[in-house]
Amino acid sequence: MIVAGSVAAAVAAGGGVTAWLLTRDDDKSAAPPPKPDPTTPAPVPPGPPTAPEPPTAESGPYTLTMWLDKLFTPGVDQAKTNTDLAAALVKVDPLGTLRSEVQEIADPSKLDTALAAGNGPDLFQVDSLGLARRVKQGTLLDLTPYAKRLNADAWHPAARAACTVDGKLYALPMDVYAPVVVYDKRLCDPAGFVVPTTRDEWITQLDKLEQHYASDPKFEALHLVGRAWQTIAACLYANGCEIAVQQNERWAGRLNTDAGRAGIAFFQKLQSYSSAPKNVEEYKDPAGTITAVLTAGKAAMAIQPDWVVAELLRTSPETARNLGAFPMPGTTAGKAATVGVWAGVLAVSAKTGHPIGATNLLRVMASSVWQERWANENETVPALGGLTTTSGAANPARAATLTALAQGKPYPAAPGWSAVPLKDFAEKVLGGADPVVAGAEQDARIGGSFSEYRP
């Protein structure tokens, strides 16, 4: 992607399951019910009434406006996309026309202001991390009634979960991101590196690399800055830490738990293999972008989404050709660790005058044809499972990403979601703070901020 550093920068600046319990007040004076016959299957309780299928066409001609974010669409030929999407929309709804615009939405307030005023686009592209905030603001159309039409059951489960808030679907994922371990074979092979299948094996291989290159002061077995929040989150998730949980209308932090402390200890272990600063963001890394770090040929590994490799295929093909990748290993052999997943998504304004038309356009975008085209143009992982894209076939990290997605889970769907508590937790512990104290501080912060949102 053209935005190798930009996506990381934008994200760095940055559901629960509802249980149903059906009870009934029985008349205490009534005769006791007969004892069930163990040979007779228990009756199946009636399910909720089936909602009627929403209409499939608007009542009259309409025009949709869609804002695409330049950050997420570096490979899109805008003129051709407009023409082809408009033609595809007419096939499913002859009354519809489309006007698609690429916007600079680095500042989300531009979109928020337009949506709140009712003069924003009918559809727009954002990342999944901000969906819960916009749900709380009331600016998103609930897409749950259209889930079948959008083929949502065929999406990667983690991608669907990333688009779900309080059990309801609010967006169509177009590309999905998960961290994987990228390694440079030019450095790893001479040291006898073997791709690890467990966490312990990974540590053994990192130790082997450090020993092999002990005479090179510039060598890093793993390049990892101290505030790399997606890796921090992966270490927390891999150790069973939920980061934050919803309790009624409030959110509570879970960093100051046994799982949270184990997770941050694992991150601390990984970061010890790096000479990168412990107190900087990834996009402020003094060594430069991660593509520059890998091109320099002194870092044996990095933990990144697979678009980093796609970027290197353009900017440094020799480096890209010598890269391999594997999912972050779990504690059980052959089972990847749980990592966080987020997505670039398309959502519909709650104030659109054409909800049926807008969801018909999403139906087009959810098709295998458009999911594959989008993934190829932008060199990303499509949300629709089972697609073999040409860009993915050329990317050595794609297979690792798909394995990671199978074990992935979304970040907390909190209106006030922020990665800052994770980054501060890690920085303090890396700086020598007591994990109990640091975890308690950030849990208090999560409790105060995750439930809030900007009006």
Q: What general form does the structure show?
A: globular
Q: What is the residue-mean pLDDT, rounded to a whole number?
A: 87
Q: Total number of β-strand segments? A: 13
Helix/strand structural class:
alpha/beta
What is the CATH third-level topology name of the largest domain?
A: D-Maltodextrin-Binding Protein, domain 2
Our estimate of the beta-strand percent is: 5-15%
| Spatial extent as radius of gyration | 24 Å
Low-confidence parts: 1-50
Largest sheet composition: 6 strands, mixed
Helicity, as a percent range: 25-40%
Characterize the quaternary organization of these chains.
single chain
Number of domains: 2
What would you say this structure looks like, in words?
Residues 31-55 have a biased composition (Pro residues). One of its GO terms (cellular component) is ATP-binding cassette (ABC) transporter complex, substrate-binding subunit-containing. This is ABC transporter substrate-binding protein. Pfam families: SBP_bac_1. Residues 23-60 are annotated as: Disordered. The protein is 38% helix and 14% strand. It has 2 domains: 62-177 and 341-410, D-Maltodextrin-Binding Protein, domain 2; 179-340 and 414-449, Periplasmic binding protein-like II (D-Maltodextrin-Binding Protein, domain 2), CATH 3.40.190. The chain is globular. It has helices at residues 4-12, 78-92, 108-117, 131-137, 157-162, 185-188, 199-212, 229-238, 258-271, 290-296, 307-315, 317-321, 355-365, 368-378, 390-393, 398-406, 420-430, 435-449, and strands at 62-69, 96-103, 123-127, 164-165, 168-169, 172-177, 180-184, 244-247, 250-253, 301-304, 323-326, 340-348, 409-410. β1 (62-69), α2 and β2 (96-103) form a beta-alpha-beta unit. Mean pLDDT is 87; it is low at 1-50. The chain has 18 helices and 13 strands. α2 crosses α13 (355-365). With 455 residues, the protein is an alpha/beta fold. Strands 1, 2, 3, 6, 12 and 13 form a 6-stranded mixed sheet that branches. A 3-stranded antiparallel sheet has the order 10-7-11. Strands 4-5 form a two-stranded antiparallel ribbon.
